[in-house]
Structure formats: C-alpha cells, structure tokens
Amino acid sequence: MENIFFNNLGIIALESATELGKKINKVLYDWRDENFLIPCSCPRFSSGEAKGIVEASVRDKDIYILVDVCNNSLTYKMDGSLNRMSPDDHYQDLKRIIAACNGKAGRITVIMPFLYEGRQHRKTMRESLDCAMMLKELENMGVHSIVTFDAHDPRMQNVLPLNGLEIISPALQFTQALFAEYEDLKIDSEHLIFVAPDEGATERVIFLASLFGVNIGMFYKRRDYTKIVDGTNPIIAHEFCGGNIDGMDAIVVDDMIASGGSMIDVANQLKERGAKRVFLFSTFGLFTSGLEKFDKAYESGVFTRIFTTNLIHQKEELLEKEYYSTVNMGRYIAAIIDTLNKGDSMIEISKPASRIRKAVEDYKIYH
Q1: pTM score, two decimals?
Q2: Interval 64-79: pLDDT, tens
Q3: Which of 118, 147, 215, 230 could, after both became Cys, cross-link 152 (CB 3.0–4.6 A)?
Q4: How far apart are CA 297 and CA 312, in angstroms?
Q5: What would the pLDDT profile of 259-306 be if each residue is shown by its tens digit?
Q6: What is the domain-level CATH number for residue 35?
Q7: Which of 151, 167, 183 is the endpoint of a domain?
Q8: Alpha-carbon span 66 to 20, nearest angstrom
C-alpha cells in the first residue's frame, strides 16, 4: 500500500545547501517528473536579527529540509559590517524555517549531513551537551526524524528513542569512487589494509575491512590530559597498533578532516612503515587550517589521494587540487528521500553491505 505522503513531497533547501538541493531535486525530477523544491529565505534586519520565510504552501506535505551547518562561505550584514555565518547561525535559520511551516506540514524531516555540535557529544567535565540539546529541541518543534551522515558518535541516537535519527554511511560511495580512480588495486590481506586514525574510527574501518576481506590497523592518540587547547586535550603522539604493512596500500578512514594535522601525521607514519600508497577517506573535509600542509605532504609523497564528499560546502581551492576527488552524494540523498517518502525500509541504504561486497567482487573479476 502506498504511503499517504507519496507524491505529496516537498524539499526546502536553506541557502547553505542550495546547490545540493538542486542536485537532489534534479534526480527526483528524473524519477518522478515533478519539481519538489519549495523556495525559502531568511532575510536579516540591519541589527543582525532574522526571520524565516517559506514561499509556497507546505500544508499536509512530507517536507525535507536541507541544511549545511558547515558552510562558512555565506555572510550577512550587521551594523553595516559583514559577518561570516557560523554553525550557530545556520542552526537558528533551520529553526526559523521549521517555525515558518506553522505546524501545517504533514511531516518534517531534517537532513543535516554534518550533525550540528556532533563533536560535543559527551561530558568529561562540567560542560554543556550541545548536540543532545539540539536533538531534543528539534523533537519539541515537531520534527519527525533527522537524517545525518557518519555521526561523530552514533550513540547520539539514544537521545531520541521514539523519533528517528538515521545515521547513513557513505562507505558505498567511497568504494565506488576509489574503484573508478584506480584499476591496479590488489584486494587481499597481503596487499591492502584499512587503518583507523583513532579509536573512534574503528567501527567504520572494521565495517569496510570485513566487506573487502582484508585486515585492519589502528592508531590511538596519546594526549596531554593536563592541558586544554581549542576545547580539547592536545595530542602528544599517534601510536600504531597493527602488523607489518611494508609494500601494502593503506586506506585511512575517518569522519572528518578538521585542521588535518592528525591525518597527515598518520599518513606519514604509514609511509615510514613502508606503505606503498596511502589513500585518505573522510566524509567531511573541513580543512580549517587551509591546504598548504596538504600540498607539502602530497609533494613529499606522504599520501596519494584524498576523497571527501560534497555533503558540506567545498572550497574552490580544494576542488582544483590534483590530489583531491569529490564523492558525489546527491543521488544517494535523493534515494533516501524517495525511500522515506514511500515508507520503505532504510536498512539497505543506511549500511549497504551487500552492494559494497558486490562492488568488491566485480572489481576483482574485471581487474
């Protein structure tokens, strides 16, 4: 039986996710021959205050709101000066658009690829739990479910036991992107290894390594717990746990590249241990300290390729680098929206193990 919301679909892309929204709508248009984008805006007063405007009816529709809280390329005027938009600004705009729907939408799903305040997911002292507060706030505003990708800590699902928090893995798209770029990979335990740059990435690495049929390695971060720098305890060193990797291709998998110092240090240690090539997989490429250190590392042969998704804003400078590959997620998000709108199961989409295994088997046959 068709879901009552089928063909009564609406997509609202905030300014931070305009380009991604257009790509998703184009795919859905090809599938359903209908335009689903609903215009919206968040104009600001000269004081910096704002309001949310939804420019078409949302009554009884199945609404999907797209927001990129990491898009720091956007600015707004306050008191005559330009302010760059922070994650806090984007989150406030999201709440404004939800409020502008006035409770008339049949169902609201928020698609937030980078989970707002996802890095502040647990307490280690007397401090706030911002991510949990955000999730509860959206629940209280009537949001039916939230879709995010590769959450820093998947246990955030426990905050919403009755509402949905779908955490999607982009592992299939990374696998396809790697296979499309390189035809000389030898997929066995003697030639390929997946590496976790820290303890938090171990689950992602085990998932992929199991499907590829290869071994894993892991680094753990030795920290100075007597100091706090930029909100965290500084890393003293990365220590490697694993076997001999001499002559092997190594794939480092993590949820994000922030400043990039840890990822480069890990890649450097792998090369010192004899790794043939080092590939870097990261769902979110923030590159908060610029790309100069990556340029130097690439020129020195520390890594071979960086793969990150287009789930968040990508700097033009990054897109021009010869060592960088974009993993396009537009079609996958369209499939997620289509699946949720029809009321179908999300199991195959959230962790597509069978499709990854088939991609690996096909690669072995053809290469």
Answers
A1: 0.90
A2: 999 999 999 999 988 8
A3: 118
A4: 24
A5: 888 899 999 999 999 999 999 999 999 998 899 999 999 999 999 999
A6: 3.40.50.2020
A7: 167
A8: 8
Q: Which of helix, strand or coil describes residue 303?
A: coil
* Helix axis angle, 292-299 to 261-272, nearest 10°: 10
Tokens of 6: 């089928």
Residues 161 and 216 in one domain: no
The stretch 329-348 carries a mean pLDDT of 91
Helix (H) / strand (E) element for 252: namely strand 249-257
Residues pairing with 321 in the sheet: none
| Residue 334 belongs to some domain of the structure | no
26/98 same-domain check: yes
State the residue range of the domain holding 269: 171-328+355-366
Work out how many domains the chain is built from and give that number.
Answer: 2
Q: How far apart are CA 361 and CA 342, in angstroms?
A: 31
Residues near 49 by beta carbon (within 8 Å), at least 6 away in sequence: none
Q: What residue has token string 């090809």? A: 30
